[in-house]
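Notebook entry, structure prediction.
Reason for the run: the old model in the group folder had no record of what sequence produced it. Starting over properly, with the input documented here first.
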Amino acid sequence: MKKKFVFTALGLALMTLGYVQAESPAIGSKAPDFSLIDTQGKTHVLSDYKGRVVVLEWTNFGCPFVVKHYGSKNMQSLQKKYSDKGVIWLSICSSAKGKQGQMSPADWNKEIAHAGAHSLAYLLDEDGKVGSSYDAKTTPHMYIIDANGNLVYKGAIDDKPTHKQSDIKGAKNYVSAALDEILAGKKVTIATTEPYGCSVKYAK
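New structure, fully documented this time:
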């Protein structure tokens, strides 16, 4: 999934701006339930996964910040590592029709196979309702829900807010740290961080 991107500093700054939405659900509150269809035509209802730890990953394969984590295989490695430990990993695209990142299910499946992704499913949220309910601002924007259905982490994937793959090495991965704590029965130490990436391409 190697792609080349050339961006001005202004362009990158503009892409990191979040979409103005309703207030984000609070840490410790029940995660908003939803029902979405994946790229294979299967329906996924969040509440059906109660009793399992769930990761929600907002994505857009046209975004250079997403390419950073997929092109380096960082995201796929996280998906596989924690899926193997019983975590439900769901990737969500809230790009509206005609906007960057929106694809047909067939094209999505080609890209997913090419990337070697290990997410349980890629869910399509073209009307943006689910993204809005979580106040998802960027791609990637990460959320973790505990086995009781409570939101326990929301924010960035790591502490290096750039699109450079070279910055992954040595970065503090907030998602990995939070999942390790949850799986060990501990409270998440860093529960909220500022997300970075391209703005979610909602319909306006």
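Summary: The longest helix spans residues 105-115.
The old model has been moved to the deprecated folder.
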